[in-house]
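Friendly challenge for the regulars: who can give me the structure tokens for this chain first? No prize, just bragging rights.
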Amino acid sequence: MVCLAANRISAASAMVFMQDSERAAALATASGLDVGLHINFTECFTASEAPSSLRLHQERIRRFLRANKYALVIYNPFLRQAFREVFEAQVNEFARLYGREPSRFDGHQHMHLCSNMILDRILPAGAKVRRSFSFDSSEKNFFNRYYRALIDRYLAARHRIGDFFFALSQHLSISRLQRVVELAKTYDVELMTHPEVTVEFEGLLSDEFASTISRAQLATLASL
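First reply, four minutes later:
Bragging rights claimed.
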């Protein structure tokens, strides 16, 4: 809420079926914060109201996706129904908490872009969806960038996505942040941050950050 009040963030993503989901929804609704659904396949649900059957489905998915770092690119036919049911349950819970549909979809550890979600077309057509991270040739190898480009091409054909997506943790230096702001003058650019991380929180509230981002127009996810 501090970052929102200081006009340093314009939107947020929320998990459901977590211990603090109810309080977070109340705070966000009271403040008018634009909130999307942060789809969770890899962290155990901690809210008491999460049904046991849902926990079992999510645990199967969680074990699969956390087995190794390449699991998200592997399609698991035995989890087709589990992925769909866990996703739909989270959408319904978000609607209960916030009184509306999510303004956008993204995923914890970006697992909303895992192969089961993509190949089974589980995300609603036409929805706003977070794209892959944006990197240049010096930051990632060719195959990594090629795979991300394929995913983004699919997303662009079926969903509404931004033009670029970066993490503030990688752009805390003013020189790197300025590159993001220059892009934002022409394109739709999302800059992800985790204010609970001290260095990001301090960076967000710094005068240098405020001065740099003032050169671009801030927008909510709902307006893109």
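The chain has nine helices and five strands. Strands lie at 11-14, 34-39, 105-107, 164-167, 189-192. Your move, everyone else.
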